[in-house]
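Reopening closed ticket. The problem is back. First fold of the pair:
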Amino acid sequence: MSVSLSTLSATVDGILSADNDELSVLRRQDLIKAALERYSHDAPDEIVTDVTGDAGKYYPIATSLTSFVEGFSRIISIEYPAATVASDEAPTYLEPEDWDDNYWAVSVRYLWLPSHAPAATEKMRIRFTAPYTISAGAVDIPTAHFYSISTLAAGLCAQAIADKYSRTSDSTLSIDSVDHLSRAQQWASRSRELIGMYKESMGLGGGEGGSSVQGTGEFVDWDTAPSWPSVRRWLYHGKGSR
C-alpha cells in the first residue's frame, strides 16, 4: 500500500483533534518519519532479491543487495539454487552454517559462502529485512498497519505537544503557568494512551495499564548461528569459542 506523507499527516491530525498551531507541519512530518523508523524496528519490511553468481564465494552486500541498510538489515534466508517457479521446482534453502552475512574486508561487508560458489548460470534468492522509508513524498506500508502507524505518530506528536507546554519561563505560580502544566499533563496522558494502543495493535504488549515487556518464545536448532532465524545469543558461549 503506497501512502503519501500528506495522507498520513491528515490521519494523524484527525486522531489528535489538535489545533493546527499546536505543532508546525514540518514538526509533525518529522514525527511521522520517527514513527515509521520505530515501526520498522517492530515489524521490518522483508525484501527478496535474486543475485546472479560469479563462480566466487564472496559477494559485496552493498552492491548485491541495494536495499540493504547497514546497521539495520539482516539476511533471513538464502535459497540456492533459486527455484524456477514456472517449472514448479521445489525451493532449496542453505543451512545457516553455509553463509555468513557479516564478513568484513577493510570497509566492505561481504556475504561469504564457505561451501558454495554459484556459477554465472545460477541465482541465489535472498530474503532480508529493510526499514520503511519515505521516497518522493510516499511510503509503501502494509495496509493492515496503516492506522497502527498513524496512532504511533499521533502519540509521538502528543508527547511533543506535552513537552511544549511543560516548558515555561514563568517562575511564579500564575494562572498561565498552571494552565500550561495542566495542558502538558493532558497531552502526556494522551501520548501514553496512543502509544499503548499502537503496541497493543502490534501485539507488543504495553496497552493502557499494561507492561511493555513482550513475552515470547521460539524453537531453535542449538547448532545454528545466533543471527538465524532471529537475533539471539548462544546459551553458554560465543560463536568463536565453540
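Second fold of the pair, where the issue appears:
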Amino acid sequence: MLGAYEEGDLAEVRPVALDVELRRLVASFRVRPAGIRNSLTASDLYVVLMFARRAALFAMRERDAAWIADGLAAVAMVDDERVDAREIEPTLDLLEHAATEIGADARALFAEAAKHATRSVARAFRRA
C-alpha cells in the first residue's frame, strides 16, 4: 500500500519522499506491468494519478522530459475499472501540455507509455 500526498495547491508542489518511491515503482512497472498493476489497491491508483499530475509540474519546472515519461507510465499503471475513468483524461491533458511546454516529443512519449497500459487506458492515450 502506497502512502498519500498531503492536500495542497499543485502550483506550490515540492518533491517529497513519496515522489521518489513512485519513480522507483514506475521503473519497476516498465519491466513487469501486470504484476505491479495487480498489486495496487484502488486508493493506490489515485495516489499514482496524483503523482502523474505532480510529474507534469516537475517536468515544466525542471524542463525535464523524464518526469513526463514517468507521469505517463504512472497513468499506464491505472486500471480504469478500479478508479473513476474521468480522472485519466485531464491527467493526460496536463502531461501533454507539459510535454509541449518543454518541447518534448509528446507523441513518442505517449506511444511508449501506452504499450504498458490496459487496452482501455491505451485508447485514452491515443485520444490525448
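Update: turned out to be a display glitch only; the data is intact. Residues 69 and 109 are 6 Å apart (CA to CA). The mean pLDDT is 92. Please close again.
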